[in-house]
Every structure is written in structure tokens, then in C-alpha cells.
Amino acid sequence: MAKLTSPDIMKQKNKKKVLKIIYTEKNIYRAKIAEMTHMSTQTVTNITKELLSEELIYEVTLEKKALGRNPMALSINESGMFVIGVEISVRSIRTILTDFSGKVILSTKKDIEKDINVIDILKESIEHMLNGFDYVDNIKGIGITVEGIVNADEGIVVKAVDLNLYNVNIKEELEYLGIPILLENDVNGTAIVEKYRYNKTKNFMLVKLDSGIGASFVLNDELLSSTNNVSGEFGHTRIYRNTDIKKCKCGRLGCLTTEASIGALKEKYQLDYETIKKEVENGNAEIRKHLIEIAKLTGQLLSNVIVLLDLDEIILTGRLINDFNSILYDEIKTEIQDNIPGWVSFRRLSVLDINDIKNVSTQLAIENYFR
């Protein structure tokens, strides 16, 4: 492959910039694109002509004049571009193929069993998508989210204990596919998608209460990252009390995840999660009382984070908050309100339904394509 020159690189950047504007703005005129990008009208015309020939965009008539040629707006060809999304949890690998509008074309799910090779299943799942699809050349990227510590820049799963993945370079493993790969931690991925959804500068923390506990921060409209890729390990903040202190998988004592996670509930009551839910539905006072204690512990620790970072909002997600919202939400909210001073910017505690974030991996792949 010939090496790209500086003008070639600039042309590709301008092309992506124009394409992204057409994608986000929808039905936009060439003159407006020139205004937004500070490119000349002729440059925009040349770029859009190329995009039209590649069938990545199409022309739309928004207004009809009695005389003369009708002005033509531009729209993205959402049904002609596709992405694959893979969501790897401790329970399953879910793979979906969608177009850029989010319409699901194909979908598969593989439960993760003991001693299963996650990488083999990952490859098989993606290859299944490719083999069953007629427009492989129009697949613009693959987005992968993983429950674990991830180096997104390098495409490496640094550590995912329950998946038995340690320092696995996913990008290299999938390089043979010839499709751009984006790897992200599942909670960070959700926060990134939420950031684009707000479409404005915002300071928020997203907390996932599930098998374990994870968090992600968006500060001044940027995802917080760290040297060792472990920012947001909210589940390993300490609970300070004198009795009943439990040892965490990380080796320390008193981590929040030893009390406020699904894994902790299952261990405490020696029941599977579905049975725990049924027990609560049937009025089990002991488990309900423990859930209230979980909410208070979580709210206390969240209030400290709010004061430290002056957050505008906390977003809760995950099966625990979704399944026990009626018990947990008000208790967490009250605990936060009782423990933060009046001068902080905090305005809202919200819940993001897990059913609204199922296709995070495909949305990440789309956003990555426009970078």
C-alpha cells in the first residue's frame, strides 16, 4: 500500500469531518457545511461529490421552488453503512450487526461456560456475522465492550478475571479481518455514548451496579483516563466500619463491591440472583433491609465523590438498580442530599435503564468511524 502524503491525509481528515457533520446534522446544505468547517465552497463540493459517488450520502429536496433548480440538501446513507458490535460480559458474548440508523440486521448470543475460550468464541461470533452478510465491504468498524480493565488506545484487555483474560491484544487477534477495531471497558463505553447523547459539556459519573461495581467519569466533556487504565474502580472504595468487614477478590478488606453488588448478595444468601429477586417480590424483609443498607453505603460514598469533583449528575445503571429501583433509588438520593454541601453543582441522580444501552458497542463503532 502506497504511503499517504500530507495532502492525502488532510483530504481524508476533511472528508471525515464533512461526513460527520452530514451524519449529525442530517439534511444539511453544502453552504452550511462550508460555514461550519471553514472550508471553501468548492472544497465542500468536491468532497460531497466523492461521497455521493461512494454512495455514503445522498441528496434530498427539502423545499420546492416554483422556478429554477431546487436546492439539494445532503443526508447520510444510514442503510448503506454497517457496524458490528460485541458486548462481552461475565455471563455471555452478544454480537450484533446494525446499519448506521441502529437497525439490527443480525444478532447472536453465546453463554459463557466454565473454561470456555472467550477469544475463540469472539472470533467465531464475528465470522458468523460476516459469512451471513452480503455487504461486508460496507462494514465500517467493529466495536467491542468488555467487563474488565481495558487499554483502549492499544486495544488490550489488561485484566478481566472472570473471563480469564490477561493482557490480550484484541486488535491484534482480529487484525486478519481487515476492519477497524475499537475496544472499550463496558462502563466507559456507556459513558461515552451518554456524553454524545447530551451533546453539551457536562460533568457526570456513571455507576454500574451489577455482578460487580464499576464507574466512569466525564469531566469537562472528556472521559477520564489514567496511567494504569483503572480510573473508575468505584467498587474498590472502602467501607469504614468496625464489624462484619469482608475480604474482596482484590485482596483488600471492606471494598464496596463486597456488600453492594449482585455477587455479594448471592454469596450472603447462598441463592442465585433470580431467586433473590423473587424473595424480595414475595416480601422477604431481611433481604429488603439489606438492600436499604446497600443504598445507604453507596449514597455515602457517592456524596464524597460529588464533593471532591463537583459533579453535576450521577447516572446509575446495571441490573441491581434496575431490578430494585423502588428500594434503592430514594435511599441513595436521600443519603446524597444529606451529605453534600449547598455550594456544589450537583443537580440530579438519574437511572439509565439497561435496556437502553444494549447496543453501546455498535454506537461506539459508529462514533469511531467519524473520528
What can you see in these coordinates?
With 371 residues, the chain is α/β, with parallel strands linked by helices. It folds into 3 domains: 67 residues, Winged helix-like DNA-binding domain superfamily/Winged helix DNA-binding domain (Arc Repressor Mutant, subunit A), CATH 1.10.10.10; 122 residues, 2-Layer Sandwich (Nucleotidyltransferase, domain 5); 141 residues, 2-Layer Sandwich (Nucleotidyltransferase, domain 5), CATH 3.30.420.40. Helix content is 40%, strand content 22%. It is built from 13 helices and 15 strands. The strands form 4 sheets. Strands 5-4-3-6-10 form a 5-stranded mixed beta sheet, sandwiched between helices. Strands 13-12-11-14-15 form a 5-stranded mixed beta sheet.
List keywords for this structure.
single chain; 371 residues; alpha/beta; Arc Repressor Mutant, subunit A; Nucleotidyltransferase, domain 5; 3 domains; five-stranded mixed beta sheet; 13 helices; 15 strands; globular
